[in-house]
Amino acid sequence: MSMPTPTSGVIHDIGYRHYDGERRGRSYIRRSLYIDSLKGAYGLGRSARSKVMPMILFAVMCLPAGVIVTITAVTNANELVGDYPSYVLNLQLVVLIFIASQAPVTVSRDLRFRVMSLYLSRPLERVDYVIAKYTAMASALFVLTAAPLTIMFVGALIVGLPITEQIPDYLRAMAGAVLISLMLGGIGLVIAAITPRRGFAVAAIITVLLVLAGVQATLQEIASAESLDIAPYLGLLSPFTLVMGVQSSLLGAPNPLPSPPGATGALLFSAAALLIIAGSYAILLLRYRRVSVS
Amino acid sequence: MILDNVSRWFGNVVAVNDVTMSVGPGVTGLLGPNGAGKSTVINMMAGFLAPSAGTVTLDDEVVWRNEEIYRRIGLVPEREGMYDTVSAWQFVLANAKLHRLPDSEAAAQKALNTVQMSDVKDRDIATFSKGMKQRIKIATALVHDPQVLLLDEPFNGMDPRQRIQLMDLLHTMGDGGRTILFSSHILEEVEQIAGNIQVLVAGRHAASGDFRDIRRLMTERPHQYWIRSDNDRALASAIIAEQSASSVELVADSRGGSGYSTTGARDTTAALHVEATDVSRFVRVLPQLAARHGIRLYEVSPADESLESVFSYLVTR
Amino acid sequence: MNAIVAQLTARSLLGRRRVLLLLLLPGVLLLLCGAVRLLAGSDTTVSIGVLSSFALGTVVPLLGLIAGAGSIGPEIDDGSIVYLMSKPLSRHSIVHSKLAVAVAVVTVVAAVPTLLAGFVMSGTEASLAVGYAIGAFVAGLAYCALFVLLAVITRNAVVVGLIYVLIWESLVGSFVPGAQVLSIQQWALAITEKVVGSSAGTLGLSSAVSFGTGVVLLAVIVIGCTWYAGARLRKLRLTGNE
């Protein structure tokens, strides 16, 4: 048996200092979480492995833009060989894989390792968490979709094409990029927030989005072949075609698919888009309200 | 189980560095700070990791890629993941059946009884607390009555009562001739049940054997004693005059703590803290000193012959 | 093949959320086919289009991914596979049992609904339904084997599998003719073509590979992936979290 320490209690000075300075509020925390999640979606600030997928996808997304600019330059064409508004539609698979693999990275990890209690024990409300994550995911998608458009735009200017011709479609496509980012970000996060298992979340997100795309494509083909009235409205079924519809009916962009007619078409499509965005946000709030902190 | 010059590296990181040890019947504690390589060693012993160099054998049979060896080895893993969707009984029974035991049901029941989980055996594992899951893990490792039992941090998440039960269980099994190896940070438990300890520090095998023997081998560090007597100051000067101690400290012991005087009452007197460089001489000389100066000795106890001090010495060496 | 392993796999694979996802796909397939029938009547060309691209091209690979990767991925991820590995059980046996469960699931949620979908769209005409059902079954078998292997090799099996299915089979396959020879979809289509028989050509159903090639390649993939998965499982490292 050994005797206890002889002196009565020693407090060691390990350098702990009380902090009396300024404490930044909720908006700062929200902004920090936003920046951190945005960087995390591209693997910045994380291990090398987590950078591989998003960086490859980003490169694949921008590659055709580069090719388009190069071909335009080489062939001395009068306008860009490719077109702004349908760029994202054509590369939808890349965007789908991005949201499917990065939405779980953003949200499922926190659930799996049960760190929600750590977040919420700070002056961060659940609403702030949702806002930060949603805007971060949407911003990550926006970077992905806007970059190639911007590459084409800048490339066109460098090649010498008149800016007045480029701007309208470029802006239309950018608006579309904003819309698709918000929509896919919402859908992706809603599905990812349901399960802490990352692999399952990826499968679920891709399933839902591919099924929507597949159904839309199939029905569209048949409806167009049969020239059915419903044909232009089938775009509502899948996020990408929905955005195309908004772009063309509301903003006047060219559309490879049948465009929703008139004011009703524009209204319907825009309303649908907004509904999806607002609905995703609401569902996320509900989901995180019910997350336990213990 | 014998590890012979075993090393394991992951890229540039050497997790286990040229370790040779032999683990036999009885309870052996594998000790080491975090990152010392304990889990790596246990994984290699359990055949889940190949040594980058050297061999790991059980009764002269290589463990790696040898599925039949699992009839003789039971492993209690550290990670919590388990088949959550089934009940405890179904899970332990499944484990028994996977071992192709002649009477799986009896074995499963016996294992559950041993860990005292029979009364909740029909509840789903997902509803269990961490300590209960730990006990189910142990049941799955015992179900086939293995000769060797490997436990990776088994006391994690257990409340004191469960810890004592597990210690008793391991002690009994060790006495029964089984080879039991467990890794732990909790020195008190290791001290109490492990006859033999293996210390790993930064991947190297720092010491093995009975911890008291190890202490005795640590000759470069002076032994420390607490002495309480009826005249500390006189004794202090006498000891210092003598050659076998390097330092004597008069220490006020106002708390008392677990120190008792011979009357059994809590004492608030001072004590002497002695660092003896020549232990054998010191222990011979001390009673003579006390007798010569007419000082009555109340207590003489070693200050650092605990596993904790051995451990901290080995770790910071 | 081990019944206990199969039972445990089935219990963990068919959890509530996964079942929902597994049933969602065939449900949508059948609804879609119903809609197509309503819109376009009983048209074999259309049926072939839907069955080839949506059923065989989207539904079956996704189900193969969910079932295949889900039969072993989560257990490797949370470490509970150690309970299977610390038994005197051959690793190949573990893989076979899990694969069997995955294939059984895929048969129920992919092959059978494809059969029904075929009936819904064109009745028993030109034995399309049967042909595509068989094609769906062999494709499902191949996808399960492939994704079980991927799940053993990497933690990101689902994403890698997706890239294969989406990018390789759809995109690359459309632009690079040679790539079509290495597509599970095409091999399954070859078998379907054979079952449908001589009318296949007139209906616009044709695969990039011949029947013989398709069968051989399918067999190679199934056997190869199953065997390699067992071999890799022997060397599986159970340490670490992410």
Walkthrough of the structure:
The complex is a heterotrimer of chains A (294), B (317) and C (242). Chain A has helices at 26-41, 49-75, 87-90, 92-112, 116-120, 126-159, 163-192, 198-225, 239-251, 262-289. Chain A is mostly helical and 294 residues long. The longest helix of chain A has 34 residues, at 126-159. Chain B has a 6-stranded mixed beta sheet with strand order 6-7-8-3-9-10, with helices on both faces. In chain B, strands 2-1-4-5 form a 4-stranded antiparallel beta sheet, with helices on one face. In chain B, strands 12-13-11-14 form a 4-stranded antiparallel beta sheet, covered by helices on one side. Mean pLDDT of chain B is 83; it is low at 254-267. Chain B has 2 domains: 2-215, P-loop containing nucleotide triphosphate hydrolases (Rossmann fold); 217-303, Alpha-Beta Plaits. The longest helix of chain C is centred in the N-terminal third of the chain and has 35 residues, at 44-78. In chain C, 80% of the residues lie in helices and 0% in strands. Chain C starts with a helix and ends in an 8-residue tail after the last helix. Chain C contains 10 helices and no strands. Chain C has one domain (3-234). Chain A binds chain C through residues 53, 93, 96-97, 100-101, 194-195, 197, 199-200, 202-204, 206-208, 210-211, 214-215, 217-219, 221-223, 225-226, 228, and chain C through 17-18, 21, 24-25, 28, 32, 35-36, 39-40, 46, 49-50, 53-54, 57-59, 62, 65-66, 69-70, 73-74, 77, 155-159, 162-163, 166-167, 170-171.
